[in-house]
Structures are given as C-alpha cells and as structure tokens.
Amino acid sequence: MNPFMQTMSRQRVAHALWQKLRSMSGATLLISCVLLLVIMVVGIGMIRSSSYNQQLAANNKKRIQAFYATDGIITLLSQEAVDNKANGYLTALMFPVVAFPFEEAGGSATANLGRYGAVAPAGNITSTAPLWVSNACDTFSHAALDFGTVGTAARYAIELPPEHYLACAKAFTIAGWLNCRDLAAGTGGNRIVHWYNGALGTDGEGIDLVVQNDGKMRLGVNQYAHLPVGQEGALSASSIVTQSASAQATNWVFFAVTYDSSAASNNVQWYKGSRTVTAYSVGTNTYKRGHVGSVGTSLPMAIGNFSSVTDSTGRMFKGIIDNIRIYASTKDTAGELNLTDIIKVQRNTVDETDTCTLAGYNVEYSMVPSNDGGFDMLAYTSRPDDAGLYKVRSLLKQHIVPAVDAQSLTPPDTYYIPVTYYDFHENQSCPEFSPCYAGPPQDTRGWVQDTLDAQRKPIVKILKAGVPGQKYQTNYYIKYWFRPWAEGAQGDYTAPRYDHYDYGSSFGGVWDYCNIGCGCNWTAPGGPEVYFLGYKTLTWDTAYKNVVIKDSIRLVKIHPDTFQYRLWTDTWGTPPSDCWKWDWGDAGATKAPSLHPLNSKGYGKEGQCANYVFTMEVKTVFVKKPGQYLYINADDDFYAFVNRRLAYDHGGIQHPLSGRFNIDSLPFTLDNYKAYDLDLFWAQRAATGCQILIKTNIVIGALPPIPGMRTWKRDYGNLD
After folding, report:
1. Which DSSP state fits 6?
2. CB 3.0–4.6 Å: which of 98, 389, 647, 680 could bond 618 by disulfide?
3. 284 phi and psi, to 5 degrees?
4. Which of 322, 347, 372 is at the close of a domain?
5. Is 16 helix (H, G, I), strand (E, B) or coil?
6. Same domain as 305, residue 433
7. Residues 429, 527: one domain?
8. Could you tell me the residue range of the domain that residue 191 belongs to?
9. Nearest-angstrom CA–CA distance, 414 and 435
10. CA 72 to CA 80: how far, in whole Å?
C-alpha cells in the first residue's frame, strides 16, 4: 500500500472511532477513557522499568568488577606479605625490616617503624648520648642523633632488643644519612649498623657495617667487617663519608649498600648521594658469604656502635646519624633495592599508599605493619558510570599474619635440626666435667636464672646454704659450657673449687681426683655431698678448653603428631669388650657404640667406649599452637628456654631423670600462631653413661609455609 492510501486508511479508522465515541453514553465514555489512561500509564512504566533494569544491571556488573579489582589488589598484597616479597608484586610498596626516622627530637628511645616494630617497637638510647639535634639530613627530617666525638671514652649506641631481624636473609639493603665530625677510627672502623654474635673468624652470624678513617665503608656478613686479616669484608672502592668538625649541613652524606647472596659476582653494590646530588653507584664487590645467620639467630641490633653482645669502646661513629632503613628478604632478591628505589629512600618518597588503574577503575591501596607482627591492608576501588550519575565503589579491609606465623606445613616423617656441640676433655682436667662425685638423687632445680643472657646462654644462679640442691651445685662456671673456649675461658686462669678435690700439678694440671676415697659410687643414693669452696687461680687457662662442632640431630615420627630424638646407653663398661650398646635415632633400633655422633669428632673417644663429656645447644624457633609439649629424659643437666625464659629446669650429674612441660601451662603468656625462640641446653658431664630422649609435638625450626597457605581475617566493608 502506498503512503497516500495508508494515510487515508488511518483517517477512516480515526473517523470511525470518533463516531463510536459520540454514540456512547456519558458513563460508558468515562470508563473507556479511564481504561485507556491506565493502559497508557502501565505502558510508559514498563518502558521506564525496562530502562532502569538495564541501568541497574550495568551498575551491578560494574560493582562486581569493582569488587574483583579490589579483591585482586588485596590478594597481591597478601601474597606479597606471605612471600616476604615487599617491593615485588606492587613495586611502589616497600617495607623495611628496621626503620629509624629519628623524628622524636627528645627522649631516651626512638621508634622503629619497620616490620619488626611489633616486637621491637623502639631502640633504646644510652643514657649520656647520642643527643638529639635539629641538624637533620634534609628538609623532610626535623631531628637526628649526634654521637659526638668522644669515641674511646664511652659506648654510646641506639640498640634494639634481640630479635631475628636479618636471620636467613638472602638479600638486604642498608641505607641512611651520615654527618661525620671525625673520621678517626678504632680498630676495624667505626660502627654504623651492627647485628652480630661476636664470633671471631669467618663462622659468626649477622652483619657488621663500618666506616674507616679514609671515608670508605666496609661490610661484613657472618663475620666482623675487619676480621680475620686477609679475609675482611667487602670494601667500597672509593670514599663515601666526609668529615666536618662542626657537622655543617653540606657535610651530610647519603649511603646505601646492597647484598645479594645468590649473585655469582658483584653481589655487593655501594651507593652515595647528598642533599643536592641524587644517589649513584660508587662500585661493586664480589663477596660470597651466603645468607645471613641461621634460622635461630636472634641478636640485639645497634646503630652507631657495637651492641651489648660485642660490648666495646672505641668503635663508635663520631658524628650525626639520621633516617636509617634496612630492607631484607629471606625468600629471594627483593631485599636488594635497585637504584630507582634507593633514590626513593634518599628522597623519603617511599609511600605506603599507592594508586593504580584497572580497566577504567581507580584503585587506592595500602599495607601497614600491625601490632601483632602482621599487616593491615586496605583497597578502595571506584568508578563513575558512563553518564556520571552513579559512583560504583568497593572497599575491602584485611588483616594477615606473615609467613612465619602462618606456618602450617607438616614436617616429613624424619627431619633434622641444627645443633652445636662443645666437646670437652675426659681426663678430669675440668672441675665440672668427668668428675668422680655422684650427683643429687633427685631433680635439682634453681641452678640457672630464669632468663638467658644477651647471647642466649644460661646464667648461673648461686644458691645460698640450706637451700635444697645447694650441697650438690657444681655449675658455677656454666658460662663456659656453651661457648667456644676462644670467646670466654681463654685467658681466664680461675676455676671453681669443690670439696673432695684439690688441684694437682701432675698431668699438666689435671685434677687430683678421688684423693680421699670418695669411691665414685654412682648408684649410692645421693653419693657424696659436694660443696663449693670458692675460686682458685691456676697456672693454666685450659680447664674449659673445648672443640666446637656444628652438626644436626634427627627427629623421627613415632606418632601422627609426635617426634622423637633418642641417644641411649644401657650399661657401662671399658673397651674393647665391655662397651654398651646404643639405641640411637629410630625407636628400637640398636646401634653400635661406633655410631655415637662425636666419636670421630672433637677430642674423640680418648680411650673410652665413645666420646663422652660434651654439651649440646639447640637454638631455633617454633610456632606456638594449642596443646604443645616437650618431654625429656636425660642425664645430666638439661634446660629448656621458651621465648628466652626458663621452661624446664633439670640440673646435676645423675642418672637419667624425666620431665615434661606444656607450652600452654607456662607461667608466661604466648600468643597462638606466633613464632618464638626455643633454646635447649644439654650437658653430658659424666665419663660413663649417656642418655637423652626428647619427645614432642612441637614442630621445631622455622619450616616454610605451604605455598598459598595464609592466616587472614577479611572485612568486605561497604559494597554500595
């Protein structure tokens, strides 16, 4: 039909409808109009509703997209924390292990804003100095700490309490600002950052960063920076630090040093800058020292001097220090910052909040350390709709526990933990080892103090006369039982003296033992009583000479949640025919004496069936969980410390005694799913008989978490 005919047809329909309406009565017409109006309203509503639903569906789609964008950022932040990979997945976020901005401008402590701020929130400032000054490194800083120039007159320092700050770090970065008043240096240089256990040679644990009198800087990893001679640490190729007696503002120097244990060469990088010069590289070193320390390394960290562990004068930095930051990673090379990030540290533009754009959505996110050692994370995603009328937003908050605390890996049926043996002579040359007197007939407590010293070693507690156990106490020099001879007893010509004994001059200073017929009767109840008679000066310093042996012990699963270590003798005897048998390691597996772990090490068997007379030390960590316990059956002395506090106390030379402690029942509080130090000390002091049995459901040592396993709490916040 052509358009003209269509128009005529519509006109005829309209005319017919009009004629129909004219023929209707008034009531009928009214009803028809109302119905027509209703139909029109419903139709219009349906059209509008359809449009609204389409818009609503589009907005809901955007809300879901916004949620996933937010959730993705939170997941990346979480994985970054679990993997200890700060500056890894979201490159703008960098979190130091230790951070001292020194902004307090007063007081006897300064805040640590790094990852370890939860357990080591502040560094203590020694009473006299360093002093707070307003001569700060740059305009972003308002205060700093001045050590002055006294140097040898006192030990000034900023010190954090013992912690695992750099333990097992595969890569790290140390950066900060120095304004040196005097470059005159003590032996080995003046300390900038010192976290070291004090061991001489190249078998220590920790790091040591110094500045020398020529302005060059030197880094030691698992050794002092300057020792041993001929094997010193990495040295910067050129001078980094300058001096100004008045510490002028133009004398401020920015420094950074990075270390990567995995790099085949040039694994130490040095950087230098100033207030007006952007940081730049000043050379590299090839310095292969492996990762830092071990899983159990827990030491105080000092800024500007030696720590209380390596206490000494004459090694103090002479000048002002500001804005020290230390980054580290135990998983990969993320702890080694690149030059771009080092410049951010120099300019103090490292921000814990960042933004990004994902498919048109604006995302803001942050991750900051929390007071329980974890992290609080936040991500906020927003986007206006196409018409600009609606704002789609999604907010997520999350709290996550870091990887070591989220440990959930079940160890294999057999696993090993590192131990240190200290092997002593079996010839009665030491008054407290291989004696002929019997020990107490019962478990004797109270011979050690309730806490460890700064190097995590037991401290003797001398009992008063009349106190139970006092008449048997023979551990007055326990300070030398778990230390290398060269780091303690060497040069000490004194020794404790106990009754029934005198110091003979024969055998090169061997004890004149059993000289009044004490009988060496180990089976008589109590044996002879032994009293401390004071100290005596000798002509030799080798009474406590030992050989240090690094080794491991094996824990074997004997129950779904219980592991055991066992070293056992069942009789005494003399070689070659009357030696006892060993039941070592696997339950029920009888081994020959030749399999004793120290027979071919240290001083060897020295004419006995096996190598007796040694101590064993375990320094490790564990993750606290409900229901944990440790059972011990041992001779002789055995002490266990949890979080550096005494948990099990069993002293004396005696037949094996058993005991147990439950972690949940200790007289101090530990939080579930947090990591704590575990220190075990065993002394096998008698020249005959040797037994130790450990059973536990504690996973000893920092086993890695299962990939992807995390402990977290999530708040889905406002999804409107």
Report:
1. H
2. 680
3. -135, 165
4. 347
5. helix
6. no
7. yes
8. 98-347
9. 36
10. 12
Query: Over the stretch 327-371, which tens digit does the pLDDT of each residue have?
Result: 988 777 878 999 988 998 999 877 556 667 777 777 777 766 555
Extract the tokens encoding 675. Answer: 């990591």
Condensed to tens digits (0 to 9), the pLDDT of residues 156-210 reads: 889 998 888 898 888 999 999 999 999 988 778 899 999 998 877 777 889 999 9
Residues 314 and 436 both lie in one domain: no
> Which SS3 state, helix, strand or coil, does residue 559 take?
strand
One domain for residues 250 and 332: yes
Residue environment code for 459-494, b if the CB has 16+ CB neighbours within 10 A, otherwise e? ebbebeeeeebbbbbbbbbbbbbbbbbeebbeebee
C-alpha 298, offset from chain centre = 7
CATH code of the domain in which 308 resides: 2.60.120.200
Count of other CB atoms within 10 angstroms of residue 103: 16
Classified as helix, coil or strand, 503 is strand
**pLDDT-derived band of residue 81, with 50, 70 and 90 as boundaries?**
low
* SS3 of residue 300 by DSSP: strand
On the 0-12 / 13-18 / 19+ scale of CB atoms within 10 A, 264 is exposed
CB 690 within 8 A of CB 569: yes
Distance CA(310)–CA(203), nearest Å, equals 15
SS3 per-residue string spanning 319-351: EEEEEEEEEEECCCHHHCCCHHHHHHHHHCCCC
Q: Between 575 and 40, whose confidence is greater? A: 40
Catalogue the E-assigned strands of 105-261.
Answer: 109-111, 122-125, 131-133, 144-146, 158-163, 171-180, 190-196, 206-211, 217-221, 234-235, 253-260
Residues 337 and 419 in one domain: no
Same domain, 279 and 426: no
- C-beta atoms surrounding 643 within 10 Å: 20
Residue 383 has pLDDT above 90, yes or no: no
Identify any residues that bridge with 624 across adjacent strands, giving them in sequence order. none
Residues 643 and 540 in one domain: yes
- Report pLDDT digits (tens) over 85-115: 444 556 445 678 899 999 898 888 998 887 7
Q: Are 476 and 462 in contact (CB under 8 A)?
A: yes
Question: How many helices, marked H, and strands, marked E, lie in the chain?
Answer: 3, 37
Tokens encoding 91: 């490159």
Domain annotation covers residue 666: yes
d(CA 631, CA 629): 7
User: In this structure, is residue 407 part of a structural domain?
Assistant: no
Check whether residue 574 and residue 486 sit in a common domain: yes
Query: Do residues 216 and 225 lie in contact, with contact meaning Cβ atoms separated by under 8 Å?
Result: no
Whole-angstrom Cα distance, residue 167 to residue 206? 7
pLDDT of 171 reads 92
Residues 6+ apart with CB under 8 A from 265: 286
User: Is 376 part of a structural domain of the chain?
Assistant: no
Better-predicted residue by pLDDT, 38 or 299: 299
Classify residue 374: in a domain, yes or no: no
